[in-house]
Records
---
Amino acid sequence: MMTIAYLLGVVLLALNTNAKYVIQDDYKPSTFADQFNFFTAPDPTHGFVKYVDRTTAQNTGLYKVENGKVYIGVDKTNVAPNGRNSVRLESKKKYTRGLIIGDFQHVPGQACGTWPAFWTVGPNWPNSGEIDIYEGVNNGTRNAMTLHTSDGCTINRGTDFLGNVETTNCYINAPGQYSNQGCSFTANRDNAYGRAFNQAGGGVYATEWTSSFIKVWHFPRNAIPADIKSGQPNPAGWGKPMAKFAGGCNFDQKFANHQIVFNIAFCGDWAGNPDVWRNGCSQYGATCADYVRNKPKDFSDVFWLINSLKVYRNQ
Ligand SMILES: *[C@@H]1O[C@H](CO)[C@@H](O)[C@H](O)[C@H]1NC(C)=O
């Protein structure tokens, strides 16, 4: 009897663990565009980019559903005197904690002037926080994962993650860090970003946000956990994340009501920063804006192709 009760207990425990996260929102391609706002204001990061509305995006092929995948791209045809057309999507729904899993067939391939990002952000920035899950500029090869907060949020260094800690203070005006640098990890491998990610057949980014940490995992196509594929994700079995943000931070106080954002900016505060531009891109254009204005064809690989986006909530 003891043994049966014990086994039953183990089985129930296992079932319970597997059921920890339940689906909250499945952003299906057919209704994807309805569930996002097409942001059309001037770029908050001062880029040489013009974010177009839904009608323009759909009429010019910057947004479409292609073979059951969501395509989000940029103008790769026209010289762009006033900033290159692009799309910035912000989810209508807002989330506090949870598990966000994006499966990408293709992420924007590297090109000078580009600044793609997949991220989440709350109101009254930076007081409700920002979580940058996937981000980089120009010809960079390593994904950056970053938090931006108000004062009073720091993270620990350690060994229970794969990426490299770049900075530990998440406060946007932290002393000794660049303005708005935040606390940041870079990936430990190339196949987590850009062309190398695409050459690996794409893959998954999973972000678990709890009261005590924020973790980001990257899985190349051939290493996606079965429980993600089956829609019953259990991060406890995934091994070390690429980034683990935890330490001197009250996550419930610093992060709330986030919208999910996809965008591809050009130039601006990071990609177009003269020091950053000089480091590997100035041979293509005197300034970032010159290059982005005049070389539409160089941006033909700069698009997202999203297989799925699912948000799970803690049961
Ligand atoms: C670097 O950027 C230039 C200009 O966009 C592009 O032509 C080139 O392919 C890039 N190189 C790499 C290695 O990403």
---
Amino acid sequence: MAQRPILLNPGPVTLTERVRAALTRADWCHREPEFAQLTRAINRDLAAVYPDLGAGFDAVLMTGSGTAAVEAMLASFAPEAHRTLVLANGVYGERMAKMLAAHGRPHGVLSHRWTEPVDTARLERTLAEDRSITHVAVVHHETTTGRLNDLDAIGRVCKAFGARLLVDAVSSFGAEQLDVAECNIAALAATANKCLHGAPGLSFVLARRELWQAPPSRAVSVYLDLFGYHRVQHDSGFSPFTQAVPAAFALAEALAELRDEGGWLARRALYRRRAARIAAVLEQAGVRTLLAPSEYSAVLWSYVLPEGLSYTALHDALKREGFVIYAGQGDLGAQIFRIAHMGDIREPDLDRLCAALSRILPGPR
Ligand SMILES: *Cc1c(COP(=O)(O)O)cnc(C)c1O
């Protein structure tokens, strides 16, 4: 492959040269003070990505993919004496319900079809009827379809009932708005290798400072007990277990790069420009979006496969040109393809992608 491959899947992303170079910076022991210092700097920088997080939230950094951080958040903060209500309209919402079940935490699920928005009227009725619900778990950007769930509206309902929001922000952190006060967010989980443009291997949870004082339940996991991490990371900077040291170098660099480029707002604007450009080419080729354009995040859009073109054929044709797209999940597998806008995608890459799409797709009929 002459060109560097361009990843249009929802993480991991194509790294910038600056971040990739950081991966090989040094061999460090995770139990030495220089790594403790790096960990503290990363936790500070993570909380600084959004101004109102910095004021009231502590980050905890862990080694593992985004799923590990979401599961650690639920294992650590979903109570055992009260119920957590999961709002599910895709794979990742449904996964949170599986995690709560695996950890034996009382919960209910407000299930939706994957193409539906979260029904806030139903949420309100459920919270009014069942006063044992103290926590609500929701995915911010449901990557299954590309839908940006309306955290403000969901958060307002939760706030009115005093329910704490636990958010899977894995594919939105760093590129979509997170108004933690307005949305009544108690904790959120995310990863290094999506909108932050770091390397895979590290993920993190940010939670309100007061929540770190005492665990609401007895820990049912050793590795996923975030209170153990918080105690040592915010005391000495050390971590209970071996961290992905190269990924930490990359994440620190990626956070510096995000700052240099103007922060999450600039990143969202960049993704929106990429989304608009790709969507215009696909519309020209007669390809429909799965959701209405206004429902999408800036991060990823989903498209209906044109009749007569299989996902595999489209994927393989694009792969030959150096682009990796992503399939739909579950029942959507045979119906859609997804294109994410994260990572180091430059203008010439976009030009080549748009030319390739125009060439490969059959065009309007
Ligand atoms: C990518 C993603 C995850 C976690 O995926 P990993 O493969 O474990 O990194 C969780 N939730 C959402 C919304 C995601 O997009």
